[in-house]
Amino acid sequence: MKEASHAAAERTDLAGSVGAAQERITHAIKIGEMRGDPLCEVLEAVSTSLGVQLQLHEAAVERARLPIDPAALVRLEQAASLALTGGPPLWPARILGERC
Question: Residue 69 carries which DSSP code?
């Protein structure tokens, strides 16, 4: 439960930081009377990209929270076991189509 509240607090902090940055950009455009200025478009693009980056981050975090496929977990355990016991590497066979 503590972990969930910590994650929610981090998300709020990140979203708050992004929102504050976007507000500062909007404020700078207004006080600089930049409407019609080519730099205004650049600043608005930066502001938009901050929002998009936040959305991408949130989507990646949600994806990382999904359960791991049991078959994938077995493959990971087998690869780790081979690596720890000094077994043959798996990647050359897959890349070169040869057996190790």
Answer: P
The alpha carbons of the chain give a radius of gyration, in whole angstroms, of 23
Residues 14 and 47 placed together within one structural domain of the fold: yes
Query: Residue for token digits 């040869």?
Result: 98
Residues 58 and 90 in one domain: no
- C-alpha span between 86 and 56 (Å, rounded): 38
Residues 46 and 29 reside in one and the same domain: yes
Question: pLDDT (tens digit, 9 = 90+) per residue, 5-23?
Answer: 666 667 779 999 999 999 9
Q: Is the pLDDT of residue 94 over 70?
A: no
The parent domain of residue 82 ranges over: 68-100
* Centroid of chain to Cα 82: 30
The span from the CA of 9 to the CA of 17, in Å, is 12
| Total structural domains within the chain | 2
Distance CA 70, CA 62 (A): 19
